[in-house]
Amino acid sequence: MVAxxxxxxxxxxxxxxxxxxxxHGITFDIQPNEIFGVIGPAQSGKTSMLKVINRTIxxxxxxxxxxxxKMEGQNVFHVKDxxxxxxxxxxxxxxxxxxxxxxxxxxxxxxxxxxMKDKDQLDELVQRCLEQAALxxxxxxRLDTLGTMLSGGQQQRLTIARALSHQPEVLCLDEFSIAIDxxxxxxxxDVLKELRNEMTIILVTNLVQQARRLADRTMFLLNGDLxxxxxxxxxxxxxxxxxxxxxxxxxxxG
Amino acid sequence: MIEAANNAKxxxxxxxxxxxxxTEKIAKSVFxxxxxxxxxxxxLIIGFLFYKAWPALSIDFVLELPKNGMRAGGxxxxxxxxxxxxxxxxxxAAPIGVMAAIYLNEYAKENWFTRIINLAVxxxxxxxxxxxxxFGLGAFVxxxxxxxxxxxxxxxxxxxxxxxxxxxxxxxxxxxxxxxRQASWNMGVSRWQTIRGIVMPNxxxxxxxxxxxxVSRAAGETAPIMFTGVVFYKAIEKGDLLAYGLLDxxxxxxxxxxxxxxxxxNVPDAVPFATAVLxxxxxxxxxxxxxxxxxxxxxxxxx
Amino acid sequence: MLQRSKYKVIREVLIEWIIRICGISAVVFVFAIFLFVFWxxxxxxxxxxxxxxxxxxxxxxxxxxxxxxxxxxSALIAGTVSVTVLAMIIAVPFGLGxxxxxxxxxxxxxxxxxxxVIELLAAIPSVVWGFIGLTIMNHLIMELxxxxxxxxxxxxxxxxALMSVPIIVSIGEDALQAVPDSYREAGIGLGxxxxxxxxxxxxxxxxxxxxxxxxxxxxxxxxxxxxxxxxTGHAVHIPFDAEFPFLHGLDSVRTxxxxxxxxxxxxxxxxxHYQVLFIIGILLFTITFAVNLTAxxxxxxxxxx
Lengths: 254, 303, 305
Description:
The structure holds 3 protein chains of 3 kinds. Chain A is α/β, with parallel strands linked by helices.
């Protein structure tokens, strides 16, 4: 363990909604500039875990969190400005959400709300984010049309561009390919391979093979328990330490 | 062939089935007639009001001052007074109502306290208008020392119409999908910025619909204003748009209709009828505007 | 790293506090209404010679009498009750029938139109309703029943019925819409007709919501002022007795609300007459509060399931 240099430390994280516990104490680290895959069947607490990491769990009234989440050594539940903290984390939700603004405004919304006013600076940022999300070529001539008019795959890339617009250090993707076609999925996967040079990526995925293709390390969550976290190759080798992991990745259940 | 068809009919058509379909038809027609008996008289009544009012209705009727002890002439002071009351109550109630709705829909957690607020909104909407009048008299006219004035009457109307604005604004806000808010929060945009940048722009027409509805309700109310600032008669200059000061008493359309139809003897028929039609016209017009806006909105959604 | 300016952060905190304060405004106003109305009436309540039971049960309402003013509101309560009950006898079947028709039996296009008409019906100001009662209904009742005067319980009840129907229809329709479509499909799937489905499946499922709709209609009818003031004839009188038909629809009455509206203007401030009108206000507030609270509890009960 090289905890000193880890990007994120999650230690003994427990989460419950009302009286129902959904995460039963999980502990792991995420290293800088790695793609960290998270796999597991539905209801494993994957999405809830991401909500805790970027602290949007605060908006869920009956949620109760125990344990610590540290980013570069700092407990994220003690940060001074939660909004500033949230900007350091990019989040891509399972279903694409085009905000009912123009494509340009979709990407420029967050930077503007932090006080970026300079037109040239914004133009440059919007272009860079859209390029990074592999969407620029398709939309550069119609930046002033509504984001909601794009196709599902394009909207998902717009969501990624938006997540990049606040220049995050960690990018979380939550089953991003669930509502889009395989071609777009491959495009986004290529994008992620590029992005890993600049940031840390947490890839929660419903496609086991996607984790295998992209992730450096992979974690297997089952019903809110951490079953195993290891090098991706190890997890998928068929010789993982836990038999449940072997069964899951070979498709025996899930 | 025919015999076979008849046999088939025998097979499907039983007395029970026939009776069932018969009851169904009866039920449907009865309900239809019930609906009709509500709608038809309404149209007849409005038609009749209009017919009786026709001789007196004209632009001059709106712009003239009442003459001859309100038995002739126009209704300008009352019309202007209603305009004042509606606008001032709107300026007071709209911001409070909209913000209360934002609180309830965007900030409030699901707990007993929120439940109490919601209950209070419902009950505020159910308080009889005459009790609002007593409240206005006790709180604004006497305790706050405003006296019987435009301001006191407007404040009373504002309290009375507050729940209308809260309820409709809340509905408009909750029509904005949760995912929009989450997407915005995920980017580190603050709660209020999300409301201003995403939620409000996408619900503003719905909010406006509710505010317009408030206008129509405030314009038609009589009881809450009759002891708080509106008088039977007040002399003002013709065409003077700034005739009433905030602490003056004023006339109002609804009160004027009540006065000339119950308190003033020997008023020619056409005058109260014309006043009623005018008041009804203003209220229905404003309402139709709100309905039109809502229909336009539904067909021009951005998502 | 972009930083939001201090000024903006502070402004935002301020705005959020204003929003919270506005959020509780409704609670504040409900309390304030009760307190201020109570405050104006308290002098008489605590004066010693005010007997609340006598106030409720005697029917002598002679507030302006020089040497012996008597404040018995039972005739006024009877006026309110008679007009409300008769109005509900008319409005409930029609309102629920119309709600059923709009929700279950008509085409989407007709549904849209009818809902708009109902909404417009709800928008008609009460003073205009009163005026209709005073003129059109007054003549109609005199013609049809040969009554000496048309400003009666019946007149007020018809007007009130027309005013409460929109509430009953729209809330009732909501209640019917809240019944899941799967219930309807299950009913139709069994091969029963639509009417049987409505009767056996829908009505039991929506019964709480429909009850709440009726209660809200009652609340509106009790609180209505101008329309009954103008349409019921303004006589302090108990319009029912022990013999059939119990309720005399062609009697003139006066309601609690109408009494306040008619007499408050003529009383001297802080006279006992003035104060007793505020006590009637508290009575009305309490009654409608109870009715609305019950309706809300019934609706929430439905949602809880």
